[in-house]
Fold this sequence. Notes:
Blueprint: H1 33-37, H2 47-81, H3 100-114, H4 121-139
Amino acid sequence: IPLDNNNFILRGSSLRNSEWVIGVIAYSGHHTKIMLNSVKARAKRSKVEKMMNYCIITIFIVQVIFCVLSALGYYSWYHQNNNDIPYLEIDQNGTSENSASYILLVRYGNWMLIFTNFVPISLMVSLEMVRFLQAGLMSL
């Protein structure tokens, strides 16, 4: 069976009105010219968005440092004052709740919940709303 341009199907084409087809695959794979030349579009971000992402990452790192320092501060305070706080009724029998890793992990989680207001989520929402409204105004 001879092959010519009338028997050639381009990439992305769909075959209709036929239940089956016999064919030869030519130029397939990721190393063809079409696939090598089709690059993904880069994400476009404004300077404000880049600066805001940098600030949020910095704030999150500072928040993690504060939480670690606060948990360590609580741990040192607890071991200095654990005999002076019987009103908390903390079991002193050496249970897992008195281990250093447990106390640090729980207090780190507590401080993370307390300091969650550091990251301005409302700033992200406000920026997206402004972008949406400006896109609507530009389309008028």
